[in-house]
Amino acid sequence: MNTxxxxxxxxxxxxxxxxxxxxxxxxxxxxxxxxxxxxGIHRLDGSTVIEPDGHLHRIxxxxxxxxxxxxxxxxxxxxxxLGLVDVAAGTLHLHHDIRLRYDTVLWTADSRSLDVVASxxxxxxxxxxxxxxxxxxxxxxEGRLRLFPGGxxxxxxxxxxxxxxxxxxxxxxxPLGRWSALFRAGPLGSGVLVWHDxxxxxxxxxxxxxxxxxxxxxxxxxPDVRIVDVAVQDDRVVALAVAEGRSVLIxxxxxxxxxxxEPASSDADVLTTTMIGVDDxxxxxxxxxxxxxxxxxxxxQLGTTIAPPSPYSRATTVRHDIPAADGTTLTVHVTxxxxxxxxxxxxxxxxxxxxxxxYGGFGVPHLPVFEPTVxxxxxxxxxxxxxxxxxxGERGEAWREAGYGERKHxxxxxxxxxARGLIAAGVTRPDLLVLxxxxxxxxxxxxxxxxxxxxCAGFVTTAAPLDVLALEDHPLGAGWRAEFGDDGTPASRARxxxxxxxxRAESLPVGAPxxxxxxxxxxxxxxxxxxxxxxxxxxxRRAGGSARSWTAAGAGHGANESVALHDLGLAVLDFAxxxxxxxxxxxxxxxxx
Length: 593
What we know:
- It is a single chain.
- The chain is an alpha+beta fold.
- Helices cover 18% and strands 36% of the residues.
- The strands form 8 sheets. An 8-stranded mixed sheet has the order 27-28-30-29-31-32-33-34, with helices on both faces. A 4-stranded antiparallel sheet has the order 4-5-6-7, with no helix packed on it.
- It is globular, with a radius of gyration of 24 Å.
- It catalyses: Hydrolysis of Pro-|-Xaa >> Ala-|-Xaa in oligopeptides.
- Pfam families: Peptidase_S9 (PF00326).
């Protein structure tokens, strides 16, 4: 594919014009409007309350809707502070001494004060918003404390290593139960809904309990689905889940499943529902696809076909099911210009330059969503694919376990099988294929590219811990060891050595076949160190390969402004265009660190 950076830049800019709206919450929404570069708080009529500098992570409107507590960060490093937005004045007052990192705010019913766990300083803080006075209670060093809505004054969730999470009614001190991994809790009628690693529990808030069984009203669990969000509407629970590689809505009445359906459909695109929520009694969903920019729809609007906007009407997304070497069906969603016969049955039969993305870990589903790089790449004649690999959350618990721990190499093998399947189908060729992954997905993409260099022309990693033999060196890396099966035994260390992209790169002899490499570093990343990426570049160069790193200034592992994402996306597209423009890898070795 012969293209120029300016063409890619223009195409990416056009795709980035589309905003990313947020779900209604207390009469407001946190999102990015069309044509804007950062997120702001908007009223439901579309008018803006405030669009401050920095990064708004989450919002918590007061019951009287006069104030909005926010989690605000000056940079993309995810370390935030508490702020209060005056809705009428459109002003933001920051409490720099209340330091947060994804912590829930609980308002009192009269909107006069709030409670929040300031997790960065291990404090429970009560703020009187009328006087500005604060009460601070230090937290014990053991365990993690979280607050959730429910009961008369909220719920208290205390987690400790090896002992799970105990949920307590703050008003009465009543223990409601213990779960091995509790994701979220909230009110359900007069009780509490608990979303945990084994499904959903409805719990009585009145009965004293020493364990979950004593107070559980009902339990729901389906091992073949992965819950990704949950909402309560009129005492009925609505779970957003992933089953068989696609989004489904599951309705539960007293723990009994009374309905299951795909939330949205499109003739030209594959749609994913990314979030659900109830506001003023209405259920709202966030829907998007590779060609369909994010939109918020009410449940009553579902059932109609959603069409991509006209700029993307000459492209299509198609699901392919590809057999793995062991016979398991692997799914990949491919978005491409509509003229590609291998995908739509019309037009040319030529294979296309392709960016093949992946994740494959932590039970997280890798679903087709709208990223501006997708329509931009399609506009210049390429194909963009989302591979679903074992270890992710696309097909339930057995799928997750098949690529977890000591079976992690199965995830890498799955990516290789997907690439082979697409090549065999004539959709792409090895010299036109670029593997790409972020974070854990970068580990998988790099491991696959180095183990099977014959399958691709290049590979891209973004913020990836490429040395899986030293995960604990990263700020949050100790918590990832189980995902890769690192229990410290000689057997596990030997297995990790075979899996580790960096270990493989450092052992390559000079002249070994090596796909071209771009290693992206996030300038404000607080989870993954840049060290592994730089060592990967150095190792591949020593072997004679083409490798370079690029730093996304102002970007972090969490929410980012579109300006930072533009430069990052352009770097990846430019690299993909370069390495797929001929049948041989380029000779660029410049390091743009």
